[in-house]
Design a protein that fits this description.
The complex is a heterodimer of chains A (511) and B (184). Chain A is an alpha+beta fold and 511 residues long. Chain A contains 17 helices and 15 strands. In chain A, the strands form 5 sheets. Chain A has a 5-stranded mixed sheet, with helices on one face. By secondary structure, chain B is of the alpha/beta class. In chain B, helix 3 links the parallel strand 1 and strand 2. In chain B, helix 3 crosses helix 6. The chains are: A alpha+beta (511), B alpha/beta (184). At the A-B interface, helix 3, helix 7 and helix 9 of A face helix 1, strand 1 and helix 3 of B.
């Protein structure tokens, strides 16, 4: 894409993924957002920073994706004005991110929704936790949240959560329905907000990957890799090749574990308990293999800055390799069972449909995006090592319904099994951990295609090996609002199935 | 349909026969007898995520897979705190979930138990206490047993739940039950 008319002169940030950074004014920010959107690009993340100790104001950061990679725009925000131009008219996904910027930092878009998003009343409306001078000892206040009311003959509300009937994360869903049919769904999140970004600022730079892994525990490898990638970019180092291949192995194993869990749960939510029993058996086998090879069922702490904490000996490699063909065969059997089950297909087909045009308008991303014709996958688009050597096949469907999201999961699981095979058979020799010199840069970006979609970590080092600011971004931010559209016109009883077919993170967006 | 039946038959029953010594078998039988005496036929669990990273939830799901045969112990997960004997609480308690957790606890009928799950539930874990995190579950509601781990394995969760039945409080509840004074 050509930005010459904006006179941008972006600087390229060092690191494993292509990132250009540029300072803009409000008018240019809006102009570039429009241009990127019109040329088919995306908004990935939007967050703010308190820079009053350095340059006298605040900074709004907007991360866009175009053909060339990530374009990071920085807008200085005056400490007396505290407002920035709204970009949610171009990228609807920005709406909740902008509201979160106000809750945490006190910067407000010039127009748009002014309701709180992450703040429920645990801190007062005029206190902003991500400001550097925030002390944080105010008593909580009780506040009502103004849900949008739907009125009309026979319309009633069903309020669900934050404590749900199953083993699910906390969140609130307000359905306005007529009979069984959903007229409108409004989500209310922030219940799992535990102050992750503030917490980062108390940790050593070399230890932050542990907290990153717990932004959303199901995406531990994706987030810890993104954190390490950001830090390695800052320090100007590339981990040894063997470490990168091991990281990819961990990431693909995480993808497979989550997909297996979801495929079983989707069968169960459509009344096919056999599916849950079979897939949860396969997932348990998979996790036990992790335990034997990596010493942990979940790879929460497998990655460290500069490489990996774990290595594989020949016997462990053999063990991991031996587990691949039986799982591939089992998947084939279960896919045939799912495909041939008319009752199951009847529930899957047409449920929770997001057609490609709507997906593009709302910025649906990750595996749900690929099931609605949005062909983005960082492992293909901007393949960093070792994906540049793997020729990943991108899964995709155009239907955008539950059936399409199930099909994409089957395809991606099989492709990840293939990748595991290649990674294990061709694992390069050498060290698994390189040295980490002190950071030379001011901002590092990590960007990894997790199982749910792309996760992003923006990291700024502070003095003496501390973290000045760390913003982790989960794709659930973009995808949650799309579920509000996906359920319109569906019956209430299909909501659990539709919700599970996206399987978005609450903790990852609540932070 | 035939394919499904064939798959079920081929895999068979995979629940793991726990290989127990005579003493362990005696202990297990005693625990099951306690569950029966204190709660009638089953121990019913309501899970509450009070702000976790969702790692512990993955292992709670795993505990319900066919390998662990949870219902074989007379233990099952239920959909409402009003049906529950035990709250299984995960996460550091976020300040936004404090009220919901307290209300859920109040909705559980007596005698009731609380197991705090994972490092975060035990002591706030990596998230600690802060403007948005209240830390350990025991800072918000009474806790009987803690199960550390990040996340704790299904086996650890199961043995944590079973430990509960050996606490002094369980003995006193059992005593009341024996005397027909169960406070329901």
């Amino acid at each position: 894409m050509d930005y010459t008319r904006f006179a941008l002169n972006p600087e390229t940030l060092p690191g494993a993924v292509p990132v250009r950074r540029a300072t803009v004014n409000g008018e240019t920010l809006r102009g570039i957002c429009t241009a990127v959107h019109e040329s088919g690009g995306l908004l990935h993340a939007l967050w703010g920073c308190d820079e009053r100790d350095r340059e006298g104001g605040y900074l709004l950061r907007v991360a866009l994706q175009d053909d060339a990679g990530l374009l990071l725009l920085e807008l200085p925000v005056d400490a007396a004005q505290l407002c920035f131009p709204n970009v949610a008219d171009t990228f609807p996904a920005a709406d909740r991110m902008q509201r979160a910027v106000h809750d945490l930092l006190g910067l407000r878009p010039q127009e748009g929704d002014t309701r709180p998003w992450l703040r429920h009343g645990s801190w007062p409306a005029d206190c902003f936790p991500l400001r550097r001078d925030y002390a944080g000892s105010e008593p909580p206040t009780a506040e009502d949240y103004p849900f949008v009311r739907v009125t009309g003959n026979g319309v009633h509300e069903i309020a669900v959560g934050p404590v749900h009937a199953g083993t699910i994360e906390p969140g609130h869903f307000c359905f306005s329905v007529v009979g069984e049919k959903v007229l409108r769904l409004e989500e209310r999140f922030g219940y799992a907000h535990k102050g992750i970004e503030k917490r980062f600022e108390t940790l050593p730079l070399m230890d932050g990957q542990r907290l990153a892994a717990r932004v959303s525990g199901d995406s531990a490898v994706a987030f810890s890799w993104a954190y390490c990638m950001a830090l390695e970019g800052l320090c100007g180092v590339t981990p040894p090749l063997r470490a990168l291949w091991l990281r990819a192995l961990c990431l693909e194993r995480e993808r497979i574990a989550n997909h297996l869990g979801d495929l079983g749960a989707l069968g169960n939510d459509a009344g096919f308990a056999v599916g849950l029993a079979q897939f949860s058996r396969l997932k348990e086998d998979w996790l036990r293999t992790n335990q034997r090879a990596f010493g942990a069922r979940y790879l929460m702490d497998a990655l460290v800055p500069g490489g990996t904490r774990c290595d594989l000996d020949a016997a462990q490699r053999r063990d991991l390799l031996d587990a691949l063909p039986p799982l591939t065969a089992e998947l084939g059997v279960l896919r045939d069972i799912y495909d041939d089950h008319t009752g199951l297909q009847d529930r899957f087909t047409g449920a929770g449909c997001v057609p490609p045009a709507l997906a593009r308008r709302l910025g649906l991303i990750g595996l749900s995006g690929r099931a609605s014709g949005q062909s983005w996958d960082l492992r293909c688009d901007h393949a960093h090592a070792p994906y540049d050597a793997l020729a990943v096949h991108m899964a995709g469907r155009l239907q955008g319904d539950v059936a399409a999201r199930v099909a994409v999961r089957f395809e991606e699981t099989l492709e990840s099994l293939r990748l595991c095979q290649v990674l294990l058979e061709n694992l390069p020799g050498g060290d698994v951990r390189g040295s980490m010199p002190p950071p030379a840069g001011r901002l590092g970006i990590g960007w990894i295609e997790g199982w749910r979609g792309p996760v992003l970590v923006a990291l700024e080092p502070g003095a003496d090996g501390s973290i000045r600011r760390c913003h982790p971004h989960d794709p659930s931010w973009q995808n949650w609002p799309v579920i509000e559209h996906a359920v319109i016109g569906n019956i209430v009883a299909d909501f659990p199935l539709i919700n599970k077919s996206f399987n978005l993170s609450y903790s990852g967006q609540d932070l | 349909m035939l394919r499904t039946l064939k798959q079920i038959a081929r895999i068979g029953i995979i629940s793991e026969p726990v290989s127990l010594t005579a003493a362990e078998r005696g202990e297990r039988d005693a625990l099951q007898e306690k569950i029966r005496r204190i709660y009638g036929r089953a121990l019913c669990i309501r899970h509450v995520d009070a702000g976790s990273c969702n790692g512990c939830e993955l292992e709670i799901h795993a505990l319900n897979n066919p390998y662990y045969n949870l219902e074989g112990y007379g233990i099952k997960f239920v959909a409402s705190p009003r049906h529950a004997d035990l709250l299984l609480v995960t996460g550091p308690v976020s300040r936004h979930m404090q009220d919901a957790l307290r209300r859920t606890y109040e909705a559980v009928p007596e005698p009731k138990w609380v197991v705090a799950l994972g490092d975060c539930g035990c002591n706030g874990g990596l998230f600690g206490c802060g403007y948005a995190s209240a830390g350990a579950v025991s800072d918000v509601i009474p806790v009987d047993v803690t199960v550390p781990g990040c996340p704790p394995s299904p086996g650890a969760i199961l043995s944590g739940i079973l430990t509960l039945l050996n606490t002094p409080r369980a003995a006193s509840v059992q005593e009341s039950a024996n005397q027909g004074q169960q406070p329901h």
